[in-house]
Amino acid sequence: MLAxxxxxxxxxxxxxPAAPSDAAWLADIEAFRQRRDQRLRADDGWLVVxxxxxxxxxxxxxxxxxxxxxxxxxxxxxxxxxxxxxxxKEVTVHVAPGVPVELAGKPIVTAQLRxxxxxxxxxxxxxxxxxxxxxxxxxxxxxxxxLESARRKSWKGLSWFPPARELRVVAxxxxxxxxxxxxxxxxxxxxxxxxxxxxxxxxLAGKTLELWPVIEEPGARELFVIFRDExxxxxxxxxxxxxxxxxxxxxxxxxxxxxxxxAPPCSVSPFATCxxxxxxxxxxxxxxxxxxxxxxx
Length: 297
Hints:
Blueprint (H helix, E strand, L loop, with lengths): L1 H10 L10 H20 L7 E6 L3 E6 L6 E2 L10 E6 L2 E6 L6 E2 L2 E2 L2 E4 L10 E3 L2 E8 L2 E8 L3 H4 L5 E2 L7 E18 L5 E14 L2 E5 L10 E6 L13 E6 L6 E5 L33 E2 L5
Parallel strand pairs: 2-3
Antiparallel strand pairs: 1-11, 2-4, 4-5, 5-8, 6-7, 6-9, 9-10, 10-11, 12-19, 13-14, 13-18, 14-15, 16-17
């Protein structure tokens, strides 16, 4: 809790930030939308994620063979490319002879791999393929990126609600007496635990509502919100949406701009492990702002 208080204290602004002019605000929203689309299309974006394989203890063969524990597409890998050896949370790769797998730009035969927790993960390269170890609780997996992904090639872009100024609200930050542990489910059946420093209390659609933001990672300079509303599963992605908001100003206010709400990675990739909204963050009103559907997943 002391660390959270220190983070908030050192990053609070000296005064309540002024609301931007309409022109500046609209330009910022448009830039946000363009960055969102660019991130999805990038070589490390979610549109190139092409696989997720959970590793069993012991040997896990990888390659394009039909029964490979970690299947890779035939356009980028031979039938047998090597083996991932898992011992608890440690994963070592053993590359088959003659297979040009690289790590940090250099050919490798064997290497112990660093996962994405705490990261950064060691990324293996094989032609157009990129793969690395992810850690989700006790589950250890290999996430695959394919730079020749058909999903990226056929991507038609995102759909958005028209910018709505009335859905940029000012909330009051109400700190918890002590940091609350917020355990949220994920789409793959695991859970993730975050620390929530307080509540965001605001007025919307004639109701007093609240959201519980979390500190996504140590040293984060924004608050992270995972929420659902009455559009979820109808007009927006069914599993909810994500939103980042600034840390509280000196007077304890936080600007929440729902026009910056966006769908989680699982909306565009079946291989994501997205956290879902906790019960505290289920709004009983429709929030027609930000990213909307339809989605492939």
